[in-house]
Design a protein that fits this description.
Blueprint lengths: L5 H29 L12 H27 L13 H22 L2 H18 L17 H10 L6 H26 L15 H15 L5 H10 L3 H22 L6 H23 L10
Length: 296
């Protein structure tokens, strides 16, 4: 059969994907049944769960097909830049490479020297924001964040007083907001210095980020909440990957059907809560699919 249109090609790929997915599921079930090692069956791996896996596969492939058609139909097609938040994947790769030497250095050096080295790394990253001609790429994008990475390991066991730390965080937030407002008013948001104080490596954010980290790290939460948090943690990477789709869809719906919800006082909390809930529910369902769960 000759495929003349992209939709025919995608439909064929969908059929192949579903057929291969079912074949893999059958192979897993066969291997589990014939294996000499006793693997206790999970309660949800029953006939109903298997049918749910297939239905979720159909839904997922359908969404991917729609995304493919929308991408091809727009200017630039498949060669357009990826979503803005995917830079974090490059950070993860760089951190995996440098985590062993950083951990070894922290374990050998005295704590005070490790703190100084982390502070110098963050200061250097802040200075590079003001330099022209220093452009990062996929291989070096993680470098400015190595200071945060090391500082997080050092502050993990730190015991701070919540009162002064909260005051320091509040002051840093107010100063950041005030300086950003002044610079944007004078230079414009698209100028070189427009969002300097709002960036991750600005001097005020360098104070704000460790302060809020220590605040959350010093919280004492109930055991019931800890169990819920333990179940939520495996979903975080998947939530991060899919949340822009949910976020932009919600805001598009606000603008179309409920413009009043675009007011920041309503938009920020409502959109945040709905984005987290919908993204977590989607990732939780996707993780029920044995083949796909490895990706999220």
């Amino acid at each position: 059969m000759e495929l003349r249109e992209p939709r025919q090609l995608v439909d064929a790929l969908v059929c192949i994907s579903l057929r291969d997915d079912q074949r893999c599921l059958d192979r897993v079930q066969t291997n589990r049944a014939t294996s000499r090692i006793h693997v206790p069956p999970r309660a949800h791996h029953c006939g109903a769960h298997r049918r749910l896996d297939r239905r979720l596969s159909v839904v997922e492939v359908s969404l991917l097909r729609r995304a493919f058609h929308r991408s091809v139909g727009r200017e630039g097609g498949l060669f357009r830049p990826p979503y803005y938040h995917l830079y974090f994947l490059f950070l993860i790769g760089g951190f995996y490479v440098f985590a062993p030497p950083i951990a070894a250095a922290i374990s050998i050096l005295p704590r005070s020297q490790s703190l100084v080295m982390s502070g110098l790394a963050l200061a250097f990253a802040s200075i590079t924001l003001t330099a022209q001609g220093l452009n990062s790429n996929a291989l070096t994008f993680f470098v400015p964040y190595l200071g945060y990475f090391a500082l997080g390991a050092l502050l993990l066991d730190a015991r701070v007083r919540p009162g002064p730390t909260a005051a320091l965080f509040a002051c840093a937030v107010l100063i950041t907001a005030a300086l950003t407002f002044v610079v944007v008013s004078k230079r414009g948001v698209n100028s070189r210095w427009g969002l300097y104080f709002y960036s991750y490596s600005s001097p005020t954010v360098l104070i704000m980020a460790p302060a809020v980290f220590c605040l959350f790290n010093s919280l004492r939460v109930p055991v019931s909440f800890t169990r819920w948090l333990t179940a939520f943690v495996p979903l975080t990477l998947g939530i991060y990957l899919v949340h822009p789709i949910v976020l932009e869809t919600l805001r598009w719906q606000w603008g179309r059907f409920a413009p009043a919800l675009l007011r920041p006082i309503l938009d920020i909390p409502i959109t945040f809560v709905l984005t987290v809930i919908i993204s977590a529910a989607f990732v939780g369902l996707v993780r029920c699919i044995p083949i796909v769960r490895l990706a999220v």
